[in-house]
Amino acid sequence: MSNGMEGAVNGWLQHRMVLDDLLALVDDTNVDYRPWDGAMSLGELAIHIVTSTHMFVKGIKKGEFDMPPTENYKTINDIRTIVQRYTEETKEEMSTIFTYQMKGYILFNKVRAPGTYWFSNAIDHEIHHKGQLFTYVRMIGAKEVPNFIRQPDEI
């Protein structure tokens, strides 16, 4: 990465890799767990996290946002595979964002803002939902959960 995004990618990965750690605590019996009626299931939440960040990053590069793709899964291993795929794809997309794309303005949800805003929003959105996933995992019985962020030498 030579475009100045290396620090941003590594910072994001410190958060994203914890998603793997959380999903390692889940088995197939809890993939459809919902803490309340109308909540996203545990599996839906994990998929939402990765597809949304991917949507934001691709949208910054494209100059407009498309809806996140839908992903089908049945097992926790399906979810883990989808998370890994999106992590790799998003990492690659992030590493090839140019300065002009980060400075370009994009309209989304009636807000017109530069790519830098949407990039920050994507990271914040992911962290917010990862926090929810911590709660889900605790509610299904996990006694020990990982730290909210991996240290740089653990990436």
UniProtKB/TrEMBL annotation:
UniProt keyword annotation of Metal-binding present: yes
Pfam family membership, one: DinB
Protein name listed in UniProt: Damage-inducible protein DinB
UniProt binding sites for a divalent metal cation: H48, H125, H129
Record InterPro entries: DinB (IPR007837), DinB/YfiT-like (IPR034660)
Family under the similarity heading: Belongs to the DinB family.
KW Protein transport (keyword) present: no
